[in-house]
Amino acid sequence: MLSLLVLATCLVNGASSFYVPLIAPVEYSRGQSIEIKSTQVESIHTELPFSYRKLPYCLPAKEINYAENLGEVLHGSRIVNTAYTVNVMTGKPCTEVCQVDLSSNEVNKLIDLINKDYDVHLILDNLPVARRYASPDGSIELFHRGHKVGQVYKDNVYLYNNFHFKIKYHLGTAPGKFRITGFEVESNSHSGSNSCSKEGAPLMLTKDQEATVSFSYSVEWEEGKIAWASRWDTYLTSATNSQIHWFSIINSLIIVLFLSGLLAMIMVRALRRDIAAYNLDEEMDDTYEETGWKLLHGDVMRPPNYCTSLVALIGSGVQLGSTALACIVLSVLGMLSPASRGSLIGAAVSLFFFFGIVGGYYSGRLYRTFKGMAWKRAAFLTSTFYPGLISSTCFILNFLLWHAGSSGALPFSYMCALLAFWVCVSLPLVFIGFFFGFRKQPYEYSVRTNKIPRPIPSQLWYMRTIPSMLLAGILPFGAVFIELYFIFSAIWENQIYTLFSFLFLVYVILVICCAEIAVVIVYFQLCTENYRWWWKSFFSAAGTGLYVFAYGVFFYWTKLEIVGFTSTVLYFGYTALMSITFGIFTGAIGFFASFLFVRYVYSAVKID
User: Fold this and answer.
1) pLDDT value of residue 296
2) What CA–CA distances, in Å, run from 361 to 326, 370, 385, 462?
3) Which end of the chain is more exposed for a tag (fewer CB within 10 A), N or C?
4) Nearest to 319 by CA among 374, 386, 366
5) Which position has the higher pLDDT, 510 or 272?
């Protein structure tokens, strides 16, 4: 345990140093013109992001749609230029950009966005705009990404139409060069024909009434105190519960490590006693009657029912586990930093496709071990089951996004590209891995299987599938439920998640807990003379996914304020997919741990 805590300290100390040479700073010359771009407009109260062009704001002289990577498109970002431009080291007094005549429908749309607390996300030099606000107790000053569309005050809706951009800079390596290290905004609401005038009242919008809005902005340059490599610290250290995160995670790790050690000690002592008793009885009396789990030596390795479906699930679990581990390691090393928008999502999709060869290999070798004959059918099921489940569900949810006009809807061209990527890359890799795994020697058994299966006595209620899933899922869920809070907050509350070093430790603890609890369930099942442990080993550890979904429901009712039927369906749809993914991954861990356990146990006893 001490070594793990030392490792945790080392990883945590390196958590903030996530920049690598993959992202080079851009240096600007004095007077150089830079466009302020927009990524999307989104709210924590809905799951419906929109493009900046959907808002009746001022349009630039030439509209440009910038290319996005796969992760940005899946996240709903649509990078476009705005009517705001800045010149390096050149301040700009308040300047009117344009006047927009809003129709009653456009006014109603803005009122709806303001009531739902939408944020407009702007970027400058790949740095998101931030606005200052005080912590709940007023002790510290924090930053929030984006600026509000407007504000509701005493049931009146006001539109922000005047923006003051404060840009912080740092001297570059060459004379006359500058690096941008900060991008802040102050939003104001001014009515009248000129929004630069501060004498008028705030601009109030009235439902079903037309309005004329003047948009303006000003620019201020200020020398920053932080270096370019630390400019993201403003966003990463603005979480009011960061200290709670650190202490809670450490506390959770210590508790889970203690419980895991205690559980492992009990299992080892029980097994040693059983094995010693069995071997001693056989040496003293050749006519003794076998009892307990040793009685099943002729049936314990009997191939399971529906072995094709089982190997498909195990292969998908291996594929998911490899993808998760690779993404976490790359994030710890800083190669998937927040500065590279969409890099984590894009890397996860790509790695999942490429790790198909690993999942296919383990599926193929297991299928050979189960003496399966239709390997092509099994390989096809392995390659299509999980991707088919995800794509079909997301396709249905995508229709809801299309109907709402959200930028989160995946364009048809990208859907075709993902389909082509899967057909040309993932599918062949799974078949290749399955082929080599199937040609590999099957896993060796320490016992022979009888031709006639023995009858299984009636089982106690808590050894059935559903109760055992509920009982077994508690311990692995205890290892991750605190981290789940921060992951759910990052996903559904538009926060930035960066503590991947802690996530790596949680990943390791989760693997240990799933392996231990699956072994315990299988051991108790074998003691009741039930040799059908293959599926039980998978479902026992996969029960953690049920608790993840239950936590998602709890998080929805206690933390989120999602409004609208579409947003609710999207939340529970994506949460269900996350829970199924988690269950398949943890189920595969439980299966392999139980498989190794059974092989070891029956090779340690003397069997005639």
Assistant:
1) 66
2) 18, 14, 16, 35
3) C
4) 386
5) 510
